[in-house]
Structures are given as C-alpha cells and as structure tokens.
Specification:
Length: 96
Amino acid sequence: MIWEALGAVFIGLAIALSATHWLADRFPSRTLTLATGPVATLFGALLARSILGPGYPVQVMVAALAMGTALVSLLARPPRRRMRRPAAPLKGHRTA
C-alpha cells in the first residue's frame, strides 16, 4: 500500500508540473496547482483501493491518474484573449 501511495503522489506531482509548465498562464497559482496534484491523486488512489481492494495496483494507478487530472483541470481558467470590437451589423438585418 505504501508503494501505491508514493506512486500516486509522484504521478500527481508529474501532472501538476506538466500543467504548470505547458499551461502556466491558465492556472491562478503555481503553488496551489503543485499542492492539488499530489493530494488529488492520493485521494483517487485511496478511493480506488478502498473500492477494488488489494491486488489491483495498475487499476489503482489509473484511477489515481484520472482523479488527479480531473481535479487539476478544475483549477484551469479560460485563456486570456484580447477584446475585439463588436462586428458591424449586416446590411438589411435588424438587430434586437
């Protein structure tokens, strides 16, 4: 069980580091993301182990990966875009 927990923490740290590396502008805080990744995967691993029982380490790691990815993605914000001018209305069409 200790190896599954350590593996889950390392997977979560890898998820968080890759998320902050590739999508740095979308996450509000790097420290929050780096803390959420390992905690989320550890929670996912413990939840999967309690449901499946002992003897399923690969399935537990897959569940931990899924839970960590899902919870880290909840922190992401939409990309910042420049404000555009509103488009000119088409000729002959009414606007509301």
